[in-house]
């Protein structure tokens, strides 16, 4: 199935209702490939719902959707493998585990799906990953702190448009880095700012940038009965 355009969505972080509004109002599933660049989980109220929906969308024969791994998915994978990673607990992991304990989708099932997610997507003109190709990063090692899941340094200009997330833009606006020809579209959904999607053609031409302000329900305190 070949789509005319590509619609890339930034870090969702458990903000299910915000994610749904962005897709329902701005993604044309009939002629756009959807790419979500990682960090589906943690910090928001609905990590299991985001995962469940994303898995269903990935498996829907009527659409074309690619979900990439983010560093939060790998923190969860490490926990599933027995690494009691306090860094994950401090960054939303405790609440995420609680959410999965009350969900129809189990944490183990989610972690196994995370482990199957690719680290990047590319064509001749576009490269999408969670944190981007840095000057000294390893493209294939998900545990390299300078690699494409963790990098927060300067990006290389690789001769393609890079689209990344990972580092939230505190003004809630996507940022273009001219020297590296890269967009960061993590606009702080979990910071009660916005979730961003960027629409591009297959040759890397930016066609549109859209945003949905974070929905209150995705972050406000909820009863455990919800």
UniProtKB/TrEMBL annotation:
Pfam families: Metallophos. Residues 6-181 form the Calcineurin-like phosphoesterase domain. It is an enzyme of class 3 (hydrolase). Keywords: Hydrolase. GO terms for molecular function: hydrolase activity. Its EC number is 3.1.-.-. InterPro entries: Ap4A_hydrolase, Calcineurin-like_PHP, Metallo-depent_PP-like, Ser/Thr-sp_prot-phosphatase. This is Metallophosphoesterase family protein.
């Amino acid at each position: 199935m070949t789509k005319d355009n590509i619609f890339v969505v930034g870090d969702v972080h458990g903000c299910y209702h915000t994610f749904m509004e962005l897709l329902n109002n701005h993604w044309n599933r009939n002629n756009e490939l959807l790419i979500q660049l990682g960090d589906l989980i943690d910090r928001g109220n609905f990590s299991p719902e985001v995962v469940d929906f994303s898995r269903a969308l990935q498996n829907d024969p009527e659409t074309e959707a690619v979900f990439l791994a983010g560093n939060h998915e790998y923190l969860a994978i490490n926990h599933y493998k027995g690494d009691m990673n306090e860094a994950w607990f401090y960054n939303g992991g405790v609440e995420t585990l609680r959410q999965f304990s009350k969900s129809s989708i189990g944490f183990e099932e989610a972690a196994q799906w995370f482990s199957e997610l690719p680290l990047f997507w590319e064509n001749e003109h576009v490269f999408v990953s969670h944190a981007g190709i840095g000057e000294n990063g390893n493209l294939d090692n998900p545990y390299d702190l300078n690699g494409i899941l963790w990098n927060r340094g300067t990006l290389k200009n690789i001769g393609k448009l890079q689209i990344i997330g990972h580092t939230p833009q505190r003004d809630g606006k996507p940022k273009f880095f001219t020297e590296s020809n890269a967009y960061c579209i993590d606009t702080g959904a979990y910071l009660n700012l916005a979730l961003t999607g960027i629409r591009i053609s297959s040759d890397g031409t930016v066609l549109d940038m859209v945003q949905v302000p974070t929905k209150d329900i995705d972050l406000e305190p909820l009863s455990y009965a919800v």
